[in-house]
Amino acid sequence: MTEKSLRIGIAGISGRVGQLLVEEVQAAGAILAGGTARKPGGVVGLPENVPVFSDMASLAAISDVVIDFTHAETVVPHAQSLAQHGTAWVLGTTGLSAEQSAAVYKAAQTIAIVHAANFSPGVTLVQRLAQMMGRALPAESYDVEVLEMHHRQKVDAPSGTALAIGEAVAQGRGVALVDVKESGRDGHTGPRKTGAIGFAALRGGQIVGEHDVLFTSADEQITLSHRAFDRRIFATGAVRAAFWVEGHAPGYFGMEDVLGLPPL
């Protein structure tokens, strides 16, 4: 399939990222198949004859790939609709429950899915490096802290990207993040636990996204940093993932697959 014949649908087309996706899909030469919105009749600024629906099933029926940056509560019905229509899925929603994650994995038996907490190539590489450092630097000697800062409107903390970075470190160390995560320290917390992966979240202004992961020993500190200057980087990466995932066999993939990174 050529780029110009790839039909990309956008879930949440009226949102901030949705509007950027509209621009990036067109810039990439793909067909903007349509979108979904809570109020389909109120979406402005779209090219003529681009349909907007209130349901995913209608969009899935006319799309080769759907890019979805909506909400966790939509994941289960979206997974069902996309699997039913055989439509590939680029999913950027984070904070999924066990039930919602199970719905994504079930859909991946039928369709190809790229799921990422962050579609920035830079963040993807930070996660890979964090995993490598987690494997190489012993938890008994190196304390790990993940710091993130976002705009004042962000409602969840730590960010999905921060958790993904922490998960990468935990994978490198061969442990489950849930067993070593420390977040929101306050008051008399006692000494830091050996092997803990700490998280700190800051909010203010209109910062798009800042993430740092620090490996600190008694003798040195190594810091990996990423700064997003524009939300467009997420849209650009998601469109790249859409071109990559279309035509792939069913399965669950990440941005490291899109970038062609070898498995560790």
Could you explain the architecture of this structure?
The protein has about 260 residues and is α/β, with parallel strands linked by helices. The chain folds into two domains: about 5-120 and about 230-260, Rossmann fold (3-Layer(aba) Sandwich), CATH 3.40.50; about 120-230, Dihydrodipicolinate Reductase, domain 2. The protein contains nine helices and twelve strands. The chain has helices at about 15-25, 55-60, 75-85, 100-105, 120-135, 160-175, 175-180, 230-245, 255-260, and strands at about 5-10, 30-35, 50-55, 65-70, 90, 110-115, 145-150, 180-185, 195-205, 210-215, 220-230, 250-255. The strands form two sheets. Strands 3-2-1-4-5-6-12 form a seven-stranded parallel sheet, sandwiched between helices. A five-stranded mixed sheet has the order 8-9-7-10-11. The chain is elongated, with a radius of gyration of 19 Å. The model has no long low-confidence stretch (mean pLDDT about 95).
Gyration radius over CA: 19 Å
CATH architecture type of the largest domain: 3-Layer(aba) Sandwich
The unreliable regions are none
Number of helical segments with 4 or more residues? 9
User: What is CATH's topology name of the largest domain?
Assistant: Rossmann fold
User: What is the CATH class name of the largest domain?
Assistant: Alpha Beta
Sheet/helix structural class = alpha/beta
Order of helices and strands: EHEEHEHEHEHEHHEEEEHEH
Distance between the termini: 31 Å
- Helix content percent band: 25-40%
Number of domains: 2
Give the integer mean of the pLDDT values.
95
Q: Tally the beta strands.
A: 12
| Strand portion | 15-25%
Please tell me what the overall shape is: elongated
Q: Give the strand order of the largest sheet, numbering strands 1, 2, ... along the chain.
A: 3-2-1-4-5-6-12
What's the main sheet like? Answer: 7 strands, parallel
**CATH superfamily descriptor of the largest domain:** NAD(P)-binding Rossmann-like Domain
EC number: 1.17.1.8
Organism: Acetobacter tropicalis
Catalytic activity: (S)-2,3,4,5-tetrahydrodipicolinate + NADP(+) + H2O = (2S,4S)-4-hydroxy-2,3,4,5-tetrahydrodipicolinate + NADPH + H(+); (S)-2,3,4,5-tetrahydrodipicolinate + NAD(+) + H2O = (2S,4S)-4-hydroxy-2,3,4,5-tetrahydrodipicolinate + NADH + H(+)
Binding site for NADP(+): 39
